[in-house]
Amino acid sequence: MTDILQEAIQVIEERGEKYGHPRENLKRIAEMWTSYLGLSIEVQDVAMMMILLKVARTVETPMHKDSLVDIAGYVGALDKALTSD
Fold this sequence. Notes:
mainly alpha
């Protein structure tokens, strides 16, 4: 499990360099989803929906490492989005 968490931390950092701080990236996605769906979507909704997407994929391959890393990564990104400056 430590490998998965360490890899998730690395992914969060790499994606932060490409897409900006998780707060801004999740907020941007939330705004687009809100516009498209006509519903109020918040930052935490985006992270949870992406986690659910990854969970759905694990139905076929429960131990697929990339999906597990992504799940941990979305949890970490949400935490960073909601708690860091």
